């Protein structure tokens, strides 16, 4: 028994095949999200074993996203040229090496290098399926698939909380990473079997366009892409930074939670996110049919996250997991920017458009994660209390988010990327 080798001539997959492809990609993305978020649960253990300060912890968590960001531009070109299957399998090989290196690490520098390598290795786990979905699925189905891929990511983050906390006394944090290496290798086998091959010539015929011009010029110059950039950097990147790291230290150092209580809190934060993305996947096609565009929904919904974040800052010690769960849930409006960017470009540019925007997002995650740690340490050195230091750092972050949102409102770009010149199919080859 073998998976289908090609997509249909019309650029879409039969439903059964589409479900199989989605599930195979979802497995890899689940594991990548687990690896991404596990540092929040392990932060007390790693801080004690390696004597990490807040800035070290932020750099360690951000190292994953630095590695992620470093690969995005070549990743986009490779996705458009070679297709999702070949690219994700090559990248996941690096992820296996990175996870093994983390399990063997004996000092902070090795931990950081391993996290960077791991981030590079899993950097195709969302971009590869979204590139494929751009060609294989209808626009409404793409929005649903995007939301449910993010739901799968939340499931992975959920697995990084209480399950990791329960396994720690049994296998230790190093044993956990050895197990992750095995699971990633198994996911590679599933992807190799299930995902259709990518025929570039057939893909251009399905699009009805000649091959797109090389490079990222058409992406960077696109006004719609520029409009989405600041909110992707600060609001989307900041949501991930809080969800995968800073919600945990806030609960421990500001709210007085134990490590076990913080792990429980992170579990519920990610459970809320899982349900939220599931609901987004259900309602997105209906919203599209009603003419509610992603930019309009973001304009209406994003201010809610600013109100919740301000309330969390003011309440300080009184904020538990529920406050951070509400913040992350209210931020999910900004996740609509990712499929909106993909749909703004022709399929021949989809890999580059998605990877360029992912570069924006994960550069933001790195800057916000490390930046908050630097600010917390700087305020503490200035004599501020722990609570005041965290409050000050998050006020700076909130200001950045509000300014990026105002830019989003000010730029009224609804245009589309220039499409390659249509040519006869024989010449397009």
From TrEMBL:
Pfam families: MFS_1
Entry keyword set: Cell membrane, Membrane, Transmembrane, Transmembrane helix
Subcellular location, principal: membrane
Bilayer-spanning residue ranges: 12-37, 57-75, 87-106, 112-133, 145-164, 176-195, 228-246, 266-285, 297-315, 321-349, 356-376, 388-408
Keyword Transmembrane among record annotations: yes
Protein name: MFS transporter
Domain Major facilitator superfamily (MFS) profile: 21-416
Protein topology in the membrane: Multi-pass membrane protein
Subcellular location: Cell membrane
Origin: domain of life: Bacteria
